[in-house]
Amino acid sequence: MERIIFHVDVNSAYLSWSALKLLKENPNSTDIRTIPSIIGGDRETRHGIVLAKSISAKKIYHIQTAEPVASALRKCPSLTIVPPDHTLYSQCSKKFINFLRSLTIEIEQVSIDECYLDYSSIADRFPDCLTGASYIRNYIRENFGFTVNVGISSNKVLAKMASDFEKPDKTHTLFPEEIREKMWSLPVSSLFMAGHSSVAVLKKLEINTIGDLAAADPKILALHLKSHGKTLWEYANGIDTSPLESEPAQAKGIGNSTTLSHDLQTAQEAYPILHQLSCKVGQRLKKSGQSANNLCVEIKYSTFDKYTRQMPLAGPTQDGKVLYRSACQLFDALWNGNPIRLLGVRAGKLTETGEPFQMDLFSYDPKETEKRMKLDRAMEKINKKYGDGAIHRGIK
């Protein structure tokens, strides 16, 4: 049968899990999910950010995730603020994932409150995929007390997009034949992996909806956004061939990460760190005689939630500057605005330097490539004579 993927996403996980704990401690207390409330920050100091918000806090007072608590209190002075409990959240997440693993081992967990599930492996247990999704939603609600959305499609990207439709406690399908009706009218900013900087470029090209992006010329997108433009065009057209990785793949790459001395609050603070990490990865690639064909960026937030995103590179490279540009693209698509505790960059799909490869028609420039290689050789000689770090590329 055709592959069917579920994306299972806990609705407002931190808020729901904290609400259940408070109701268990005091059954007569008000359910914080039913009133204007947030998880995160401190009322007295007015410090911190919003980690999760109730429906009424969002719809009535327009409070957003990652918004400063001081700003949220200005919008709603009577706002209920509950501090986060990360031990509790880990316990609830484990219970949630273990239930899904009791159905099938074909699960890829991508964060503390969401995962992909290969429904094809359990299709014989249900009349159809909608019934299977209802079983999962009903079991979690009745046995655990919180709700999930289930997005259904033939690939991961469309399943993820579907689960973000109307919430809470809903099932949505988004098969390729449905994207014109259900997805193309949405703003391009709602597309998976369309980060702030990418959206800004697309808007300059008068691409405002996902449908606009799907109809755009991929050659023009590649000129402005390199390989990420092609990826976004594919996602807008419902194209995604990435496998469901039920077990973390054995690391076959070269990477560097750093735990920061203080949480980063802005992209401008993060970019220099990404540059340093990318250059270190490039240096290690050169020493090993290998080139990268894929890049992955990792972000760990102050909440200790960890997220990663990866993308193919236009061609095999050891160039820290090329890695940095791709790392920035990934960061912009991945970062949700929350304070950052750790950043990491990993090069993958390594090949031996000099091994033949297929050129990228849209981004390959023979003169520029030769110029860059000469510069790299000159920098290597200087660093070998005067020590690593004696000279390095500037950030551009």
Explain the overall architecture:
The protein has 396 residues and is an alpha+beta fold. Helix content is 41%, strand content 20%. The protein contains 13 helices and 13 strands. The strands form 3 sheets. It has a 5-stranded mixed sheet with strand order 5-6-1-7-8. The longest helix has 22 residues, at 267-288.
Give me some keywords for this one:
396 residues; five-stranded antiparallel sheet; 41% helix; alpha+beta
Write a brief caption for the model.
With 396 residues, this protein is α+β, with helices and mostly antiparallel strands. 41% of the residues lie in helices and 20% in strands.
* Average predicted confidence as pLDDT: 87
Inertia-based shape: globular
Walk across the major sheet and give the strand order.
5-6-1-7-8
The whole-angstrom Rg is 23 Å
Low-confidence stretches: 356-364
Largest sheet: 5 strands, mixed
| Count of runs of 4 or more consecutive helical residues | 13
The N- and C-terminal alpha carbons lie at a distance of 49 Å
Number of strands: 13
Helix content estimate = 40-55%
Strand content: 15-25%
Listing every helix as H and every strand as E from the N terminus to the C terminus, the arrangement reads EHEEHHEHEEHEHEHHHHEHEEHEEH
